Amino acid sequence: MSPLPAPHDIPLPLPVSPLFLEVAIVFLFLIHILFVALMVGGSLLTVAFEIRGRRRPDCDTLAREIAATVTVNKSLAVVLGVGPLLVMNVFYTVFFYSANALTGAAWLAIIPLVTAAFLLTYLHKYTWERLADAKSLHIAIGALASVLFLIVPFVFLTNINLMLFPDRWTSVHGFLTALVLPNVLPRYLHFVTASVALTGLFLMAYFGRASYPVEGVFREFDRRALRRRFASIALGATGLQLLLGPLLFFTLPAVGVSWALAFNILAGISLALVAIVLLIHEVTAPAACLGVRYLAIATALTGTVIFMAYGRHLYRERALEPHRAAMAARTAEFGEAALAAQMRAKAGIHRTKGEVPLPPGEQVFKSICSACHARDTRLVGPPLTEVDRIYKGNPAALIAWVKAPGKKRPDYPQMPAIKLTEVQYQAVADYVLSPGH
């Protein structure tokens, strides 16, 4: 018996190839997490600039402009989250649902938490002027929405982390016990800093585009000042990620670590270093040169994200490999036991306690085929010795004949088609053509 808590799998074929699902989950998750990051990072920067705006009005205006992007990005995050969630449910069914069941109430709380966060975000956005004289209350509304936006990915990342380690499932009794598993907090902190970095990069382009009316919105800030400000935010958050990266890697349980994972991480770090160098030049560049490196920075960070996302998938597949093997063995045992029970019932055989069950192929033969076939004796049909001479080493041909038999010999009656499951066909063909039968 496997030491892992390995239930038997669901005996249903995947709707598409596993490769398609693997590509889909990486691609769809990347698009989804992009807007989740912009939602989280945008809400944090909104609160931060609104607090500064109590002394500097342009910062309050800037906070309001950022808040307008948060409501759009959160809607896109929700819509684009459907795809990766569906693929996760299909491709990692047992692992995903097991983790969700173990954290129970925390997982179910995601929907009301998201709903409350969305309502608070709209309340914060549309009461900016009405609560202008109650700024502390308005900031508190935005801060509460940000806290909820931070809690939701925390719960999700904890569950995704839990599904990777089935050997820990027996020690988990709710969300709080799942938090003590390795890699949860480092992974979450890495996500939060990535959210701020991506939001800074996004806002560089958002406020730096030629169509944005900077002069008509702000009194003090100009386009160059905004670009430099958000380049500094992106630089600081990206640099912090490099400090958190080693903590994230070295807290990964060794079960999923591989050379391919190491290569992806090193490639991602290399591109992140390129982005940091470019961001430093962007922050310190003369005003006339601001923005010329933006495409290169965005390309480098995009490459980093892709390498890290694929590395995460490699780790997930390697970490789950032992459990998948244990589950496949358990599924085969269950299928054999179920087939044997069906054959005993069909033949009217009742197994006594302690009796060793017959193999599935022998069960099928004795309950169905033995009425017409014997080993060395002709009954209604030819003996097994003759069947073995014809189909030896070719069970597929024997199965095809059993499914759709014809009439070969004038002195034998035509064999009727035998309807079995595919597992039963294979089991009885292997039994009939095995040595000694």
Secondary-structure blueprint of this entry?
Elements: H1 18-52, H2 57-91, H3 93-103, H4 105-108, H5 110-126, H6 135-163, H7 175-179, H8 184-208, H9 214-217, H10 223-250, H11 259-284, H12 294-347, H13 360-367, H14 384-391, H15 395-403, H16 422-432
Provide a descriptive summary of the structure in words.
It contains 16 helices and no strands. The protein has helices at residues 18-52, 57-91, 93-103, 105-108, 110-126, 135-163, 175-179, 184-208, 214-217, 223-250, 259-284, 294-347, 360-367, 384-391, 395-403, 422-432. The longest helix has 54 residues, at 294-347. The two termini are 31 Å apart.
Number of domains: 2
Global morphology: elongated
Q: State the order of secondary-structure elements, H for helix, E for strand.
A: HHHHHHHHHHHHHHHH
Write down how many β-strands occur, each being a DSSP E stretch of 2 or more residues: 0
Computed Rg? 31 Å
CATH fold type of the largest domain: Formate dehydrogenase/DMSO reductase fold
Strand content: under 5%
Low-confidence stretches: none
Largest sheet: none
> Regarding CATH, which class of the largest domain?
Mainly Alpha
Measured distance between first and last alpha carbons = 31 Å
Q: Helical proportion?
A: over 70%
The overall pLDDT, averaged over residues, is 89
Structural class category:
mainly alpha
Compute the number of helices. Answer: 16
Under the CATH scheme, the architecture of the largest domain is Up-down Bundle
